[in-house]
Amino acid sequence: MTNRDFIVVTTTHDDEAKARELAAKVVGERLAACAQVYAIGSVYWWEGEVRSGDEWRIDFKTRADLSDRLAAFIGEHHGYDTPEIIGVPVVTGSTGYLDWINTETAN
Asked: 3-104: which CATH architecture?
């Protein structure tokens, strides 16, 4: 596998407990090897106006070939009408860490 075979998929949630629950479900399904949950402040356009609020960002480390399954899972288990689901390729990474992601995700 090469670096390009891995991605980081990001979503957000408005509640820390729900964000951590979603992270645990995804990792438990082996759709990601790990998830990082952290607080952020968001500013966004929604329903005709600028809004802002505190959210919890979740970054999932996974294989690129699991991206469609992961996106579908997030969509099914997320409370937002339109959840953010964005995947970005891994450009570089340590061989040991990428091997770990490969080993710990679904086959």
From this structure: 2-Layer Sandwich (3.30)
